Amino acid sequence: MPDEATRKKMVVDYAQRINAGDIEGVLDLFTDDIVFADPVGRPPMVGKGDLRRHLELAVSCGTYEVPGRPVTSMDDRFVVAPSTITVRWPRPMTFRVVGVVELDENGLGRRVDAFWGVTDVTMDETENPGNPGNPEDAETAEEAETAKDAAAEDAAESAIEGSAGTHRPEGIRA
Questions:
Q1: Before 82, cis peptide (omega within 30)?
Q2: What values do phi and psi take at 99, rounded to 5?
Q3: Where are the annotated segments for Disordered (predicted)?
């Protein structure tokens, strides 16, 4: 079983490779039968083919991940890390995620559970000034907060749908 340092390094390697757009390098971190739930609560991706499509979408959206301090388990199987993930498409947004990775005896990820919900997504409101739902256009603080919450919920729904394969930028096929 992989030691603690190896398990912690896997999380950092994943972020470095996804940030570099190195899809093959990311896939090398996982077993062929990887089960990847992002977010937990949606049907997971199963196998490297499904994961490849997810990674292609992530890279095409300008994903950049900054992992927090990884924490391991005493059974030599898990590593858990908070991450801050930013994307540029379909609009700039930031996700606060907690990832739980189960590794096999060779140090490869066999299961990933990414925990995040609608309230864990924030948006850069300055990207689209003048939009009807833009908090900057609100006349009161309450209207601004409502617009911000609605925009974050819309963005999270778009991201969830995108991870399920319904919205893809040009050049990305299901």
A1: no
A2: -105, 135
A3: 121-174
CA angle 112, 123, 132 (to 5 degrees): 135
90: which 2 tokens? Answer: 């379909």
Convert the pLDDT of each residue in 1-45 to its tens digit: 899 999 999 999 999 999 999 999 999 999 999 999 999 999 999
For residue 65, the model assigns a pLDDT of: 98
Domains of the chain with CATH codes? 4-123 (3.10.450.50)
The separation between CA 117 and the C-alpha centre of its own chain, rounded to angstroms, equals 11
Q: Which pLDDT score, from 0 to 100, does residue 124 have?
A: 77
The three state secondary structure string of the chain is: CCCHHHHHHHHHHHHHHHHCCCHHHHHCCEEEEEEEECCECECCEEHHHHHHHHHHHHHHCCCEEEECCCEECCCCCEEEEEEEEEECCCCCEEEEEEEEEEECCCCCEEEEEEECCHHHEEECHHHCCCCCCCHHHCCCHHHHHHHHHHHHHHHHHHHHHHHCCCCCCCCCCC
